[in-house]
Write a structure and sequence with these properties.
Layout lengths: L17 H6 L4 H9 L2 H11 L11 H6 L10 E6 L8 H8 L1 H15 L3 E6 L4 H16 L4 E4 L4 E9 L9 H8 L23 E5 H13 L1 H5 L2 E2 L2 E2 L1 E8 L5 E6 L4 H6 L12 E5 L8 E2 H5 L11 H4 L3 H4 L7 E6 L4 H15 L5 H18 L5 H14 L7 H25 L1 H4 L4 H4 L12
Helix pairs in contact: 2-6, 2-9, 3-6, 5-6, 6-9, 15-16, 15-18, 16-17, 16-18, 17-18
Length: 451
């Protein structure tokens, strides 16, 4: 059993409340930081830990904090990105539901380190009920003196506010989130300037996701060096994974980074293996990361065992690798249709495109139309190359990375499962039945990328 740093007390009755949370050692990091450490020392511990942002990009958190501008007399802000909208990703929701005070504690300690006296939780509209849980926790913390003026008599002041968004995927992008938080349409900003220099209300701002801020608690409690001992290489600490799809044990798991992919998907400790059929493919980090055939998920192209780390999963680039991303993990068995899955993802990205950039606004619509006709037995063989061309014109040509998020699922599906696309064109009558591969599994022929 691997160590749990965030979910250690997930099943303790009453852990949502302050009294039980305190009884389990809650808010120790706040006491330690505010009474015995300087803000700079807290930042240094986060740097030593090697913690990387858990929202998907994986940027080193301590380095991001060190970029925060500190002009005199100008307020700084911490904004927690709880706009968890990536299909397949629900680990932040789980953490906020089960242990809301862990996030509040992490925010107080992090805000102290950043010199912020006002912090926000921006949470997606569909998580409205979770916002109520957080607000209750904030009220409890304030009543107990963990928030407000002169916390623990140290002279440090902090208030936390919860802002519920309208449920737009684009607001998971940090600058679009800031625009929305300011009451404007959630369109991404052109960077630079980065939020660390000009963020919320044009003031220096750090935006981190829920899991990242929660991880600051064990880092401060035990020290950055202890945290860095967990994991492999530059993938340190633990990671929450929300696992779903055709596995026997779906759920949210906290893994030590470095566990093998084989163990994670097949061990009864985690996913428990496939649900009665053969594994076909895996998406390890949310719908925006490349899908890979099962054999490439287990081993790299060089035959090395693949690990659940940022580096190992991306080994081989997009030709044979993928990404850890947000930890939205799901597996496909041989009854699943990759074309249908790709079409569904593209429908999501077409619907959620903010429309600010032409390649994303127009390209996602065209990809959805072409995928629709292939999936429904109306495609032409040249449509496959047309799809490849469209996604290529989106990737890297938009203001924010969400254009890439729409392009990568299509590119990887064609790269690894082109023969399945061709099957749809050659057998239109068979694929008009939405359960076509459930009745007659498609046997893929492993081959190198052909596009």
């Amino acid at each position: 059993m691997g160590r749990k740093l965030l979910l250690e007390h997930e099943n303790v009755p009453g852990i949502q409340g302050l009294e039980v949370y305190r009884a389990k050692g809650g808010y120790r990091s706040v006491e330690k930081a505010l009474r015995t450490m300087s803000p700079e020392a807290v930042v240094e511990e986060v740097k030593k830990s090697g913690l990387r942002g858990r929202g998907g990009a994986g940027f080193p958190t301590g380095m991001k904090w060190s970029f925060l501008a500190k002009p005199p007399g100008v307020p700084r802000y911490l904004v927690v990105n709880a706009d968890e909208s990536e299909p397949g990703t629900f680990k932040d929701r789980y953490l906020m539901e089960r242990i809301p005070h862990l996030l509040i504690e992490g925010m107080i300690t992090s805000s102290f380190a950043l010199g912020a006296n006002l912090a926000f939780i921006y949470i997606r509209g569909e998580y409205f009920y979770v916002s109520r849980i957080l607000e209750r926790a904030i009220d409890e913390a304030r009543a107990a003196g963990w928030l407000g003026r002169n916390i623990l008599g140290t002279g440090y002041d902090l208030e936390i506010h919860v802002q519920v968004g309208a449920g737009a995927y684009i607001c998971g992008e940090e600058t679009a989130l800031l625009e929305s938080l300011e009451g404007k349409r959630g369109n991404p900003r052109i960077k630079p300037p980065f939020p660390a220099v000009k963020g919320l209300y044009e003031c220096p701002t750090v935006v981190n996701n829920v899991e990242t801020i929660a991880a600051v608690v064990p880092i401060v409690n035990d020290g950055g060096e202890e945290y860095a001992k967990i994991g492999v290489g530059r993938s340190t600490g633990t990671k929450l994974i929300s696992a779903g799809g055709n596995i026997r044990r779906p759920g949210v798991y906290e893994i030590e980074l470095g566990v093998s992919c084989d163990e994670f998907i097949n061990s009864d400790q985690w996913c428990g293996g496939v649900d009665g059929r053969a594994f076909k493919a895996v998406v390890p980090g949310g719908s925006s990361v490349p899908i890979v055939p099962y054999e490439l998920f287990l081993r790299t192209a060089a035959g090395e065992p693949r690990l659940m780390t940022y580096e190992s999963l991306s080994d081989g680039g997009f030709a044979t690798g993928t990404m850890l991303g947000s930890g939205g993990f799901y597996a496909y068995n041989d009854a699943q249709c990759i074309v249908r899955s790709t079409w569904n993802h593209t429908r999501f990205y077409r619907h959620e495109s903010c429309g600010q950039c032409s390649p994303c606004r127009e390209g996602t619509g065209w990809m959805e139309k072409v995928l629709h006709r292939i999936e429904h037995g109306e495609g032409r063989m040249e449509d496959i190359d047309l799809l490849w061309d469209i996604q290529r014109r989106i990737e890297g040509n938009t203001i924010c990375p969400l254009g890439d998020a729409a392009a990568w699922p299509v590119a990887s599906a064609i790269r690894h499962f082109r023969d399945e696309f061709e099957f749809h064109v050659r057998h239109p009558q068979k694929v008009k039945d939405p359960r076509h591969f459930e009745k007659e599994p498609f046997v893929r022929k492993p081959k190198p990328a052909t596009v």
